[in-house]
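Known limitations

Structure tokens in this collection are predictions and should be treated as such. Users comparing against experimental data should check residue numbering before alignment. To illustrate the layout, the record for Molybdopterin-guanine dinucleotide biosynthesis protein B is reproduced below. The input appears on top and the generated tokens appear beneath it.
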Amino acid sequence: MAMGQHRKILQIVGYQNSGKTTLMEQLITQATTEGFRVGSIKHHGHGGIPMIESSKDSVRHEKAGASVTAVEGEGTLRMSIHQSNWQLADILAIYETFNMDIIFIEGYKNEDYPKVVLLRQAEDQSLLQKVTNIVCVLYWPTYPLNKPLDYPTFSIQEKAQYIEFLMQEMRNKS
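Generated tokens:
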């Protein structure tokens, strides 16, 4: 069910151990079940060049059904392509040749694509001021949701609701 030239892009952002990779797996699985051709890009935000053994998240994306996966860190795109550094736009240009319907991006907080923000701790609240283009927020029971946020907000335990909300976003946007 290829959607043509207009690929959808959704970023998943949050701090370490906030559930980004698990959410990526859930979205990739749902999108491929619906017949979309899916690609994934992970930013290796912990410093250093991503080693093959540290590409376990990309392997999880692939097992979930992503047709194309990549992990980038310190100028290395784990597709064995090297240059002085990689910008997300450069990686997306490569993905353009694979005719993806949807590209899910894990990380790259400073980019301006539509985002899901994961909040696990009270300190994570600052992320809402640091990122742009927020589609929705997913929060953990450990996050003190004291007042409503300015975005659609789901508990991490409301999987069916947030997956349907996000897939509707992916189906509708051009």
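For this record: The mean pLDDT is 86. The helical segments are 20-33, 56-64, 88-96, 127-130, 159-172. Please report discrepancies through the issue tracker.
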